[in-house]
Amino acid sequence: MTDEKRYQKGLSRLNELDPHAAGHLKESFKSVCPELADFIIAFPFGEVLSREGLDFQTRELATISALTAMGNCQPQLASHIKGALHIGCQPQQIVEVILQMAVYAGFPSAINGMTVAKNVFEELGISSVR
Predict the structure, then answer these.
(1) What is the CATH number of domain 55-130?
(2) Which end of the chain has fewer CB atoms surrounding its CB within 10 Å, N or C?
(3) Residue 123: exposed, middle, or buried by beta-carbon count in 10 A (0-12, 13-18, 19+)?
(4) CATH 1.20.1290.10 residue ranges in the chain?
(5) pTM higher than 0.85
């Protein structure tokens, strides 16, 4: 696949999560490293998240799990929670994958992740996940 094709495929996939995300990425890094936005669009979204084998919702739930486990990616976690909701994941699914991280990544990571989810839900007007 050519670099341009990979980029376009990634842009399309990223736009499924958030039609404004690519613009925000480009704006965030334009003064320091504009290539970073292009790399993010082309590789994670154009190569990995566009693969067959898992549907996009499952990939986003896995991403939420990983970001929660890392414990230090709150802005990215919030973006992926919003994106997951946008593509049809249910709030309860998000809560469950974050809760499961208490077992595998520890309670502090799960607490931080659940706090991010709570804030996103409040921002979007989701009052209850049960």
Answers:
(1) 1.20.1290.10
(2) C
(3) exposed
(4) 55-130
(5) yes
